[in-house]
TrEMBL record:
It holds the Pfam family DDE_Tnp_1_7. The lineage of its organism: Eukaryota, Haptista, Haptophyta, Prymnesiophyceae, Prymnesiales. Residues 85-169 are annotated as: Disordered. It comes from the Eukaryota. Residues 85-98 have a biased composition (Polar residues). InterPro entries: PGBD (IPR029526). This is PiggyBac transposable element-derived protein domain-containing protein.
Length: 543
């Protein structure tokens, strides 16, 4: 057991944590550099033994034998054993050994976490009324395939790491205009190269007798205006020819006259006629089905990635974009998506801002098997996850992802890369204690639901794995929320979080509305997942 947490009681050998108790804390609390120098291979998970010497408010002071002290939250402390506690025999026993009735020279003051007031059972008034035995603490934790039952994980692997806040890699960005932000997220080198190609194409047409291209000149600004016309048409779709966007409005209908921005239909059609995207040269690109767009695509992807420094939470999911051409390699159909037919893009976004920061196009089953990390990891979802986040390796960020990505091998591979994870587990559950967790939740396979009477119950298992980055404690957490929510986690803990409140409206047969509300207990782990897992989907809907 982990000791009492900050807002719920939890017991160790029948006692609450008090001043004088022996506890364990991560070596990271003594300083990151010190931990790395002292424990080169296990600095992430190494724990030090100390003694609780004082409590002030929500802070507990832990002292070590070398005189070092540190003030910590209760969540950062793991109970080990009670100090100054003697094994005693209950009155009336026939033991031949006399009972030691001496008291400590200076009995310590019993300081109990105030957050546990009025929520704990009454304790015995003296030691003589209870026999304290290490062998009689209740049933031993259940162990399944190396996983140990542990419903009170009070410290995750990411404890002590900073929570990065997002920022733009643009000087004085707070005073910039929206146009400046747009330029910051575009590959301007590629746009300059595109302008040169389009100017060359127009001059060639002029040499062939097309008088529309006399004095033809294409600049980067002209290409940006050309893109702006397309963006406008996408944002305000309408029936009829494109010319309608460049004409003065009639008395009836919406106002769309791009001519007021200094562009006309003749210029737009001339730009269309000589439009060309720079491509990669070289024999290795000859048979690439995406050769016509790959260089442009990579330029956009890298520009978006470098435009900002994301926050401490990264969310991984997929998106769909519509394809309007005649043929597309890697065509995908996902009916549940807002855009069901087109290209699938694996998407990484900043969980704090919702901004997309990295993209990878799905090119087809055979092509994806040749990508980086596929020769190292058997699961293609693990290889894809590592490709998407490798730019931020070693930063200690937390990766949130749904069940397509979630698995024990995935979180371990991320930990070895210096990243943490909180992921849903459904289909890829090899090595994960899925069956015992579902049994504890009262899950019925025929209905896909958990016991209604046990709604809100949570259970956990932990297992320590060895990786090239040191030992990693992985938590498998399950929550009964009508349907089971199974998570695999190295980023958080099973400490209680704020209750999750859900509201909805019901309209009866008479048209009367009534408001309904449910409240569900949550852990920090499940709260982390609920808060961020839908960020990419929200961005897809907003588009």
């Amino acid at each position: 057991c982990c000791g009492p947490c900050e807002s719920r009681p939890c017991w160790n050998f029948g006692q609450l944590t008090k001043v004088g108790d022996v506890v364990l804390v991560l070596a990271l609390v003594c300083g990151l550099q010190w931990a790395k120098d002292t424990y080169p291979s296990s600095w992430r998970s190494e724990k030090l033994e100390g003694t609780v010497s004082a409590k002030s408010g929500s802070k507990w002071t832990v002292s070590f034998t070398d005189g070092f002290t540190v003030d910590l939250n209760r969540a950062d402390i793991t109970f080990k054993q009670r100090a100054n506690v003697r094994s005693v025999t209950a009155a009336g026993s026939s033991s031949d050994t006399p009972r030691n009735t001496e008291k400590p020279d200076e009995p310590f003051e019993e300081t109990v976490d105030s957050s546990d007031d009025e929520r704990v059972p009454e304790e015995p008034e003296s030691e003589d009324e209870i026999e304290i035995s290490r062998d009689d603490d209740g049933p031993a934790p259940e162990t399944v395939d190396g996983w140990t039952e542990n419903d009170h994980v009070n410290m995750g692997q990411r404890a002590g790491r900073p929570r990065h806040q997002p920022s733009y890699n643009l000087p004085d960005y707070e005073s910039k205009e929206l146009y400046d932000y747009a330029l910051h997220c575009l590959p301007m080198e590629e746009i300059t190269a595109m302008a040169a190609l389009m100017e060359t194409n127009g001059l060639r047409r002029y040499e062939n007798g097309d008088r529309h291209y006399v004095n033809w000149k294409v600049t980067s600004t002209a290409v940006l205006k050309f893109f702006g016309c397309w963006m406008y048409m996408l944002a305000f779709p309408m029936e009829g020819p494109r010319r309608a966007y460049f004409q003065a409005p009639d008395l009836i209908g919406p106002t769309h006259n791009l001519g007021t921005f200094g562009v006309g239909i003749r210029w737009f059609e001339d730009m269309m006629a000589c439009f060309e995207i720079p491509i990669y040269s070289g024999r290795q690109h000859t048979n690439d089905p995406f050769r016509g767009v790959r260089r442009w695509w990579n330029g956009i992807r890298d520009a978006i990635r470098d435009a900002m420094e994301p926050g401490w939470v990264l969310v991984l999911d997929e998106s769909m974009f519509r394809w309007l051409g005649r043929h597309m390699p890697g065509l995908m159909v996902v009916r549940r998506k807002p855009t069901p037919v087109g290209g699938e893009v694996h998407t990484l976004c900043c969980g704090i801002t919702g901004a997309f920061i990295y993209l990878e196009l799905w090119e087809g089953k055979a092509a994806m098997l040749t990508k980086k990390y596929c020769d190292v990891h058997a699961l293609k979802s693990v290889a894809l996850t590592l490709r998407m986040v490798e730019h931020w390796q070693g930063s200690g960020r937390a990766i949130i992802a749904d069940s397509w990505f979630g698995s024990v091998p995935c979180v371990l591979a991320l930990f070895a890369m210096g990243l943490y994870a909180c992921m849903n587990v459904k289909t890829v559950h090899r090595g994960y204690p899925k069956e015992p967790l579902l049994a504890k939740l009262g899950y019925t396979k025929s209905t896909g639901l958990c016991d209604k009477e046990r709604r809100g119950e949570l259970f956990g298992y932990t297992q320590v794995f060895s990786t090239r980055a040191g030992e990693c404690q992985v938590t498998a957490g399950a929550l009964n929320q009508k349907k089971p929510l199974l998570l695999v986690d190295t980023a958080s803990s099973l400490l209680p979080a704020e209750d999750r409140v859900k509201y909805w409206t019901i309209i009866d047969a008479n048209g009367q509305e009534s408001k309904r509300k449910t409240t569900q207990e949550m852990t920090l782990m499940h709260e982390l997942y609920h808060n961020y897992y839908g960020v990419v989907d929200q961005g897809n809907r907003d588009r």
